[in-house]
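Hi everyone,

Forwarding the result from last night's run.
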Amino acid sequence: THHHTFPHTHSSMKSSSFHTKTFSTLFKLRNTSRSGGVPLMRHSNLCILHPFAESRATRQPFSTETHPKIYTKTGDKGTSSLFSGERTSKSSTYFAALGDVDELNGMLGVVREYAEQLRSTMARGEESAVRHSNEQRTADEEDHAKEDAAKDRDVTQNAKVHLDAILAHLPQIQSRLLDCGSSLATPPSSSPESYLALVKFAPEHISQLEEWIDAWEEKLPALRRFILPSGGVTASHLHVARSIARRAERSIVALRETGDLDEDVMRYMNRLSDYLFVAARVMARCEAKEEVSYKKQRERKNRRRRLDEQPKSAL
Protein backbone atom coordinates (compact mmCIF):
# COMPACT_ATOMS: atom_id res chain seq x y z
CA THR A 1 0.00 0.00 0.00
CA HIS A 2 1.29 3.43 -0.95
CA HIS A 3 1.36 6.04 1.76
CA HIS A 4 1.49 9.80 1.74
CA THR A 5 4.05 11.26 4.15
CA PHE A 6 3.11 14.67 5.49
CA PRO A 7 5.68 17.46 5.38
CA HIS A 8 7.56 18.21 8.62
CA THR A 9 6.66 14.91 10.29
CA HIS A 10 7.15 11.18 10.01
CA SER A 11 3.41 10.56 9.96
CA SER A 12 1.63 9.04 7.02
CA MET A 13 -1.82 8.41 5.68
CA LYS A 14 -3.04 6.25 2.86
CA SER A 15 -2.77 8.23 -0.35
CA SER A 16 -6.16 7.01 -1.52
CA SER A 17 -7.73 8.81 1.41
CA PHE A 18 -5.54 11.88 1.11
CA HIS A 19 -5.94 12.47 -2.60
CA THR A 20 -9.63 11.71 -2.98
CA LYS A 21 -10.72 14.08 -0.23
CA THR A 22 -10.54 17.80 -0.81
CA PHE A 23 -9.11 20.38 1.50
CA SER A 24 -11.77 22.90 0.69
CA THR A 25 -13.13 23.11 4.23
CA LEU A 26 -10.38 23.23 6.81
CA PHE A 27 -10.31 22.95 10.17
CA LYS A 28 -10.39 22.34 13.84
CA LEU A 29 -7.22 21.93 15.85
CA ARG A 30 -7.05 18.71 17.78
CA ASN A 31 -4.52 16.26 19.13
CA THR A 32 -4.56 12.76 17.76
CA SER A 33 -1.49 11.36 19.46
CA ARG A 34 -2.01 10.84 23.17
CA SER A 35 1.72 10.72 23.72
CA GLY A 36 2.88 13.44 21.35
CA GLY A 37 -0.01 15.77 20.72
CA VAL A 38 0.68 16.51 17.03
CA PRO A 39 -1.75 19.18 15.87
CA LEU A 40 -4.07 18.21 13.08
CA MET A 41 -6.45 20.37 11.09
CA ARG A 42 -9.88 18.82 11.16
CA HIS A 43 -12.58 19.68 8.69
CA SER A 44 -15.55 17.96 7.13
CA ASN A 45 -13.67 16.42 4.20
CA LEU A 46 -10.15 15.71 5.39
CA CYS A 47 -7.89 15.56 8.38
CA ILE A 48 -4.42 16.90 7.55
CA LEU A 49 -1.38 18.05 9.43
CA HIS A 50 -1.18 21.79 9.64
CA PRO A 51 2.06 23.09 8.04
CA PHE A 52 3.35 24.40 11.36
CA ALA A 53 2.85 21.04 13.07
CA GLU A 54 6.60 20.44 13.30
CA SER A 55 7.00 22.93 16.11
CA ARG A 56 4.73 20.85 18.33
CA ALA A 57 5.18 17.39 16.89
CA THR A 58 7.17 14.60 18.39
CA ARG A 59 9.51 12.66 16.17
CA GLN A 60 7.60 9.45 16.79
CA PRO A 61 5.34 8.17 14.00
CA PHE A 62 1.64 8.00 14.68
CA SER A 63 0.21 4.73 15.79
CA THR A 64 -2.42 3.54 13.31
CA GLU A 65 -4.74 3.09 16.29
CA THR A 66 -4.75 6.85 16.94
CA HIS A 67 -5.66 7.89 13.39
CA PRO A 68 -9.08 9.52 13.29
CA LYS A 69 -11.56 8.43 10.66
CA ILE A 70 -11.50 10.46 7.45
CA TYR A 71 -15.14 11.43 7.95
CA THR A 72 -16.29 13.35 11.00
CA LYS A 73 -20.02 13.95 10.31
CA THR A 74 -19.62 17.37 11.93
CA GLY A 75 -20.18 19.05 8.57
CA ASP A 76 -23.36 17.18 7.66
CA LYS A 77 -25.46 20.27 8.36
CA GLY A 78 -23.46 22.52 6.05
CA THR A 79 -21.04 24.13 8.48
CA SER A 80 -17.35 23.67 9.21
CA SER A 81 -14.68 25.15 11.46
CA LEU A 82 -11.89 27.56 10.66
CA PHE A 83 -8.56 27.19 12.40
CA SER A 84 -9.58 29.93 14.81
CA GLY A 85 -12.34 27.60 16.05
CA GLU A 86 -15.07 29.73 14.52
CA ARG A 87 -17.78 27.58 12.97
CA THR A 88 -19.32 28.98 9.80
CA SER A 89 -21.35 27.99 6.74
CA LYS A 90 -19.57 26.15 3.98
CA SER A 91 -21.03 28.73 1.61
CA SER A 92 -19.00 31.48 3.29
CA THR A 93 -16.30 33.43 1.47
CA TYR A 94 -13.64 31.62 3.49
CA PHE A 95 -14.57 28.20 2.16
CA ALA A 96 -15.23 29.51 -1.35
CA ALA A 97 -11.63 30.77 -1.44
CA LEU A 98 -10.28 27.55 0.11
CA GLY A 99 -12.18 25.47 -2.45
CA ASP A 100 -10.81 27.46 -5.38
CA VAL A 101 -7.25 27.21 -4.07
CA ASP A 102 -7.72 23.47 -3.62
CA GLU A 103 -9.09 23.09 -7.15
CA LEU A 104 -6.06 24.92 -8.49
CA ASN A 105 -3.76 22.59 -6.57
CA GLY A 106 -5.54 19.59 -8.07
CA MET A 107 -5.15 20.96 -11.59
CA LEU A 108 -1.44 21.53 -11.01
CA GLY A 109 -1.23 17.85 -10.06
CA VAL A 110 -2.71 17.01 -13.48
CA VAL A 111 -0.20 19.35 -15.16
CA ARG A 112 2.66 17.59 -13.38
CA GLU A 113 1.49 14.21 -14.65
CA TYR A 114 1.33 15.43 -18.25
CA ALA A 115 4.72 17.12 -17.89
CA GLU A 116 6.22 13.89 -16.54
CA GLN A 117 4.85 12.02 -19.57
CA LEU A 118 6.42 14.61 -21.85
CA ARG A 119 9.77 14.20 -20.09
CA SER A 120 9.55 10.44 -20.64
CA THR A 121 8.86 11.07 -24.33
CA MET A 122 11.89 13.34 -24.55
CA ALA A 123 14.03 10.71 -22.88
CA ARG A 124 13.10 8.37 -25.73
CA GLY A 125 14.28 10.97 -28.24
CA GLU A 126 10.85 11.63 -29.73
CA GLU A 127 10.85 15.43 -29.50
CA SER A 128 10.23 17.35 -32.72
CA ALA A 129 10.85 20.86 -34.00
CA VAL A 130 8.50 23.70 -33.19
CA ARG A 131 5.87 24.15 -35.86
CA HIS A 132 5.50 27.68 -37.22
CA SER A 133 2.50 29.21 -38.90
CA ASN A 134 2.62 29.60 -42.68
CA GLU A 135 0.27 32.58 -42.76
CA GLN A 136 1.14 35.53 -44.98
CA ARG A 137 3.04 38.38 -43.33
CA THR A 138 4.05 41.94 -44.09
CA ALA A 139 7.74 42.88 -44.27
CA ASP A 140 7.71 44.10 -40.65
CA GLU A 141 5.86 41.01 -39.53
CA GLU A 142 8.40 38.88 -41.38
CA ASP A 143 11.25 40.55 -39.47
CA HIS A 144 9.46 39.94 -36.19
CA ALA A 145 8.79 36.34 -37.25
CA LYS A 146 12.50 35.72 -37.85
CA GLU A 147 13.37 37.17 -34.45
CA ASP A 148 10.65 35.09 -32.79
CA ALA A 149 11.75 31.95 -34.64
CA ALA A 150 15.30 32.41 -33.31
CA LYS A 151 13.98 32.64 -29.75
CA ASP A 152 11.70 29.67 -30.34
CA ARG A 153 14.65 27.59 -31.51
CA ASP A 154 16.64 28.55 -28.42
CA VAL A 155 13.81 27.54 -26.06
CA THR A 156 13.10 24.35 -28.01
CA GLN A 157 16.75 23.30 -28.10
CA ASN A 158 16.79 23.68 -24.32
CA ALA A 159 13.33 22.15 -23.88
CA LYS A 160 14.47 19.56 -21.38
CA VAL A 161 16.06 22.25 -19.19
CA HIS A 162 12.85 24.30 -19.17
CA LEU A 163 10.68 21.25 -18.63
CA ASP A 164 12.82 20.15 -15.69
CA ALA A 165 12.49 23.67 -14.27
CA ILE A 166 8.69 23.57 -14.48
CA LEU A 167 8.62 20.14 -12.86
CA ALA A 168 10.82 21.48 -10.05
CA HIS A 169 8.64 24.58 -9.61
CA LEU A 170 5.25 22.87 -9.46
CA PRO A 171 5.67 20.91 -6.18
CA GLN A 172 6.95 24.09 -4.53
CA ILE A 173 3.93 26.01 -5.78
CA GLN A 174 1.54 23.27 -4.64
CA SER A 175 3.08 23.41 -1.18
CA ARG A 176 2.72 27.19 -1.10
CA LEU A 177 -0.95 26.80 -2.00
CA LEU A 178 -1.38 24.70 1.15
CA ASP A 179 0.27 27.56 3.04
CA CYS A 180 -2.20 29.96 1.42
CA GLY A 181 -5.02 27.71 2.63
CA SER A 182 -3.68 27.74 6.17
CA SER A 183 -3.61 31.53 6.11
CA LEU A 184 -7.10 31.82 4.58
CA ALA A 185 -8.49 29.54 7.29
CA THR A 186 -7.07 31.81 10.01
CA PRO A 187 -9.06 35.08 9.82
CA PRO A 188 -7.27 38.02 11.46
CA SER A 189 -10.56 39.23 12.94
CA SER A 190 -11.13 36.09 15.02
CA SER A 191 -7.70 34.47 15.50
CA PRO A 192 -5.12 34.97 18.25
CA GLU A 193 -1.88 36.70 17.30
CA SER A 194 0.01 33.48 18.00
CA TYR A 195 -2.02 31.67 15.33
CA LEU A 196 -1.57 34.50 12.83
CA ALA A 197 2.19 34.45 13.34
CA LEU A 198 2.28 30.72 12.64
CA VAL A 199 0.39 30.97 9.34
CA LYS A 200 1.97 34.21 8.10
CA PHE A 201 2.73 33.88 4.38
CA ALA A 202 6.36 34.67 3.54
CA PRO A 203 6.65 37.41 0.86
CA GLU A 204 9.85 35.93 -0.55
CA HIS A 205 7.69 33.33 -2.31
CA ILE A 206 6.24 36.16 -4.41
CA SER A 207 9.75 37.31 -5.35
CA GLN A 208 10.61 33.75 -6.35
CA LEU A 209 7.70 33.64 -8.82
CA GLU A 210 8.80 36.97 -10.26
CA GLU A 211 12.36 35.68 -10.78
CA TRP A 212 11.06 32.63 -12.65
CA ILE A 213 8.78 34.79 -14.80
CA ASP A 214 11.51 37.31 -15.65
CA ALA A 215 14.00 34.59 -16.60
CA TRP A 216 11.55 33.04 -19.09
CA GLU A 217 10.27 36.34 -20.47
CA GLU A 218 13.80 37.17 -21.66
CA LYS A 219 13.88 33.98 -23.70
CA LEU A 220 10.35 33.93 -25.13
CA PRO A 221 9.25 35.69 -28.32
CA ALA A 222 7.43 38.95 -27.64
CA LEU A 223 3.64 38.75 -27.48
CA ARG A 224 2.43 40.60 -30.58
CA ARG A 225 -1.09 39.16 -30.58
CA PHE A 226 -3.53 37.70 -28.13
CA ILE A 227 -3.09 33.95 -27.92
CA LEU A 228 -5.74 31.34 -27.30
CA PRO A 229 -5.33 28.54 -24.75
CA SER A 230 -3.34 26.12 -26.89
CA GLY A 231 0.16 24.74 -27.36
CA GLY A 232 -0.34 21.07 -26.56
CA VAL A 233 -1.93 19.09 -23.74
CA THR A 234 0.34 20.25 -20.91
CA ALA A 235 0.37 23.89 -22.01
CA SER A 236 -3.42 23.91 -22.39
CA HIS A 237 -3.84 22.52 -18.88
CA LEU A 238 -1.54 25.27 -17.60
CA HIS A 239 -3.96 27.75 -19.18
CA VAL A 240 -6.83 26.04 -17.34
CA ALA A 241 -4.81 26.30 -14.13
CA ARG A 242 -4.26 30.00 -14.87
CA SER A 243 -8.01 30.59 -15.17
CA ILE A 244 -8.63 28.74 -11.89
CA ALA A 245 -5.92 30.87 -10.26
CA ARG A 246 -7.77 33.99 -11.41
CA ARG A 247 -11.00 32.67 -9.90
CA ALA A 248 -9.21 31.86 -6.65
CA GLU A 249 -7.81 35.37 -6.63
CA ARG A 250 -11.31 36.83 -7.04
CA SER A 251 -12.52 34.74 -4.11
CA ILE A 252 -9.60 35.95 -2.02
CA VAL A 253 -10.28 39.58 -2.95
CA ALA A 254 -13.74 39.15 -1.40
CA LEU A 255 -12.00 38.38 1.91
CA ARG A 256 -9.72 41.38 1.50
CA GLU A 257 -12.76 43.63 1.27
CA THR A 258 -13.75 42.51 4.77
CA GLY A 259 -10.19 42.98 6.08
CA ASP A 260 -9.86 39.25 6.88
CA LEU A 261 -6.80 38.48 4.79
CA ASP A 262 -3.02 38.33 4.76
CA GLU A 263 -2.25 40.68 1.86
CA ASP A 264 0.74 38.59 0.76
CA VAL A 265 -1.57 35.66 0.01
CA MET A 266 -3.51 37.80 -2.46
CA ARG A 267 -0.30 39.10 -4.04
CA TYR A 268 0.99 35.54 -4.42
CA MET A 269 -2.18 34.41 -6.18
CA ASN A 270 -2.03 37.40 -8.52
CA ARG A 271 1.57 36.65 -9.44
CA LEU A 272 0.88 32.93 -9.75
CA SER A 273 -1.57 33.42 -12.61
CA ASP A 274 1.14 35.40 -14.45
CA TYR A 275 3.60 32.58 -13.82
CA LEU A 276 1.17 29.99 -15.18
CA PHE A 277 0.61 32.03 -18.34
CA VAL A 278 4.34 32.29 -19.03
CA ALA A 279 4.88 28.63 -18.10
CA ALA A 280 2.18 27.66 -20.64
CA ARG A 281 4.08 29.56 -23.35
CA VAL A 282 7.30 27.80 -22.40
CA MET A 283 5.57 24.43 -22.30
CA ALA A 284 4.14 24.93 -25.81
CA ARG A 285 7.70 25.10 -27.07
CA CYS A 286 8.72 22.10 -24.97
CA GLU A 287 5.84 20.19 -26.56
CA ALA A 288 6.80 21.49 -30.02
CA LYS A 289 3.30 22.87 -30.55
CA GLU A 290 2.15 26.12 -32.07
CA GLU A 291 0.40 28.79 -30.01
CA VAL A 292 -2.86 29.70 -31.72
CA SER A 293 -3.42 33.43 -32.20
CA TYR A 294 -6.72 35.22 -31.70
CA LYS A 295 -8.36 36.38 -34.93
CA LYS A 296 -11.01 39.06 -35.18
CA GLN A 297 -14.43 38.24 -36.49
CA ARG A 298 -14.62 39.08 -40.18
CA GLU A 299 -18.39 39.40 -40.01
CA ARG A 300 -18.07 42.20 -37.48
CA LYS A 301 -15.66 44.05 -39.81
CA ASN A 302 -17.91 43.59 -42.84
CA ARG A 303 -20.97 44.68 -40.90
CA ARG A 304 -19.20 47.83 -39.75
CA ARG A 305 -18.18 48.59 -43.33
CA ARG A 306 -21.75 48.17 -44.55
CA LEU A 307 -23.00 50.52 -41.84
CA ASP A 308 -20.38 53.11 -42.76
CA GLU A 309 -21.41 52.95 -46.40
CA GLN A 310 -25.12 53.54 -45.70
CA PRO A 311 -26.49 57.09 -45.98
CA LYS A 312 -26.91 58.70 -42.57
CA SER A 313 -30.63 59.14 -43.23
CA ALA A 314 -30.99 55.38 -43.49
CA LEU A 315 -29.48 54.77 -40.04
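Residues 93-123 form the longest helix (31 residues).

Cheers,
N.
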